[in-house]
Amino acid sequence: MGLAATLLPEFDHEMANTRKCIERVPEDKLDWKPHDKSMSLREITTHLANLLSWTMLMIEQDSFDMAPPGEDPPRVDPAGSLESALAMFDKNVAAARAAMEGASDELLLAPWTLLMGGNEVFKMPRVAVFRTMIMNHMIHHRAQLGVYLRLNDVAVPAMYGPTADESGM
Which of 27, 75, 109, 131 could form a disulfide with 82 if both were Cys (CB 3.0 to 4.6 A apart)? Predict the structure, then answer.
């Protein structure tokens, strides 16, 4: 069994959990945020929906510059609605899964570099980038979204066990 095959069951589980959270975002509060320094519900939902696009960058390129010298940093348009965020998420889940399914162990063990302004931020094997900068990063922001849901009296879904709102999975 290859590296990708060992990661895909976890990927499927985490993507299902993430979708459950995104589905609960109250559309009438997309511009709400808990603090001036925080992302809005729209921004965090868009970030979660788009984050998986990094999988394709990681598979198809040897590096990515978040602030290319002399250029504007790449930006993602904020989701206009919950429906558009879910569509973006579903599209990126399918594309990320396909990219990982097609990735050889050799490719996943090869280094990938994140740059900012032409300077190296980090270099890691692609498999580590997938696990940390994509999967763990998504789980981190999904947890933030869970707090946002709680602060808006929206039931937080069960993921790894029951929540105060749901006793079952």
Answer: 27
pTM summary value: 0.93
- Single-letter amino acid code for the residue at 83: E
| DSSP label at residue 27 | G
Between the alpha carbon of residue 167 and those of residues 13, 20, 38, 52, the distances in Å are 18, 15, 30, 29
Q: Which domain holds residue 50?
A: 3-24+38-71+78-151
The answer to whether 86 touches 22, Cβ cutoff 8 Å, is yes
pLDDT for 105-123, tens place per residue?
999 999 999 999 999 999 9
- Residue 112 sits in a domain of what CATH number? 1.20.120
pLDDT tens-digit series, residues 5-60? 999 999 999 999 999 999 999 999 999 999 999 999 999 999 999 999 999 999 99
Quick check: is 32 in a domain? no
